[in-house]
Specification:
By secondary structure, the chain is an alpha/beta fold. The protein has 17 helices and 14 strands.
């Protein structure tokens, strides 16, 4: 091996026109991000300032039993709050005081805005500053919006991390920050790879504990592991940090190019890179190859939902042999996903935003073999004869880096295999 693998800049879909859609759209609530963030940050608590509907959503999505002690809750806005008949800030202060007196383990408290709190213009940023000053240094209080009025559900994490970046301590130390919530087992795999490459110090955002939080400054470089972190990217840049652009670590190719971009930044030798990555790369290739036979030459259509669509389309077309017909994303942050766009083979329509009726017409006309979409569309599309994959499952399932490459391919192969078995049963 004479050099570390490089991202070969090419045409791909970079110059393709993007269909901008601004019509009726279907989205899932940004509060959903709390479900994986509260598991990631062991000393944090997420207090949603919202309605009983918000509380029911979180309880249902998390599957937490009524006697459990989760790290999230809802400060209920009653009718008199929405009508402006009470001092919401006074009620919120009392709720926070009760929470922190009962839960002394909390080190980070997030006040999470919702559709109702934003409609009545409740200033949670001001409340967070006031409460943070009151409970410092033991508890840091921050706020972000989890409203689903104009955002997609993964932007809850983006808003949370961006709020955290603004509060990170300053440093002049050169270090790498990896941003994006990953399951602990996947994060450990990533850190082992970087450590074996001799790259460090490495910090992760979000950190599992408050005292492990990264610092940031003009000597900080950062890499993203989730393609929906547009606001987080901008927040790091405002703090003087520099982004290491790379395709996202989905599949063998994406993982290798992601690691290679960081390795070049830190001066890792080609020999060291080969030594560390050769075995897991081979395992990933074998795992994907064993599953991709059922995906090869199949056509896939992405409705905008999770913002993972562009990197996943790159993985499916380049590593699994599928053909992408349309790749829709709620937002396309060029500064974040441009390298995945350049690797995406020419052909698919790129669309940003949504006009759901028109997109449904295009899907029915195309009749793809597999349609990746949100929960709200999946059952109706199945009833119309289209095979679907729930986009939200791709967020809740470990899919990053080498050891999960086969699992990622299997998530797309499973619906097609199920449909084949149903056809066989019907024929018998």
């Amino acid at each position: 091996m004479s050099e570390i693998p490089r991202f070969r800049k090419g045409k791909g879909c970079s110059g393709a026109p993007v269909l901008k859609q601004r019509g009726q759209h279907e989205v899932f609530c940004g509060l959903t991000g709390i479900i994986w963030l509260h598991r990631k940050m062991q000393d944090a608590f997420f207090l949603v300032v919202g309605s009983r509907t918000c509380a029911h959503l979180l309880q249902s999505a998390a599957g937490v039993m009524i006697f459990a002690e989760p790290r999230f809750g809802t400060a209920i806005l009653e009718e008199q709050d929405l009508a402006g008949l009470t001092d919401s800030h006074e009620a919120l202060d009392a709720e926070v005081q009760r929470l922190l007196s009962r839960r002394p383990d909390i080190r980070r408290l997030f006040l999470v805005g919702s559709c109702p709190s934003e409609v009545i213009k409740l200033d949670l940023a001001r409340a967070a500053r006031r409460l943070s000053a009151q409970y410092a240094p033991h508890v840091q209080v921050m706020n972000y919006s989890g409203s689903g009025i104009e955002t997609t559900f993964t932007q809850g994490e983006d808003a949370c991390l961006a709020a955290m970046v603004a509060e990170l301590s300053a440093t002049e130390t050169r270090e790498l920050v990896v941003a994006g919530a990953l399951p602990d087992v996947v994060e450990d795999q990533m850190l082992d790879l970087l450590d074996n490459l001799g790259i460090g110090p490495v910090r992760v955002l979000p950190a599992r504990a408050a005292d492990k939080a990264p610092t940031v400054g003009r000597n900080t470089v950062f890499a993203l592991v989730q393609p929906f972190l547009g606001d987080t990217h901008a927040a790091f840049v405002r703090r003087g940090a520099r982004h290491i652009p790379a395709p996202f670590p989905f599949g063998e190719e994406g993982t290798t190019l992601w690691l290679a971009a960081i390795a070049r930044e830190f001066g890792v030798s080609p020999e060291r890179f080969e030594e560390v990555t050769a075995a897991p790369r081979a395992r990933a290739r074998r795992a994907v190859m064993s599953i991709s036979e059922g995906l090869r030459d199949k056509r896939v259509f992405f409705f905008p939902d999770s913002q993972l669509e562009i990197p996943l389309a790159r993985f499916l077309t380049r590593e699994c042999g599928m053909e992408a017909l349309e790749v829709g994303a709620p937002y396309i942050y060029r500064s974040v996903v441009e390298q995945d766009i350049e690797l995406l083979p020419p052909g698919p329509r790129l669309s940003e935003g949504q006009d759901v009726e028109k997109q449904l017409d295009r899907a029915f006309e195309a009749r793809p073999d597999l349609t990746v979409c949100g929960l709200g569309l999946a059952n109706p599309l199945e009833a119309c004869g289209l095979t679907t994959k729930w986009a939200i499952e791709l967020v809740f399932t470990p899919v990053h880096f080498y050891e999960q490459a086969g699992d990622l391919a299997a998530l797309f192969a499973r619906p097609l295999r199920r449909k084949g078995l149903l056809r066989l049963e019907a024929a018998e």
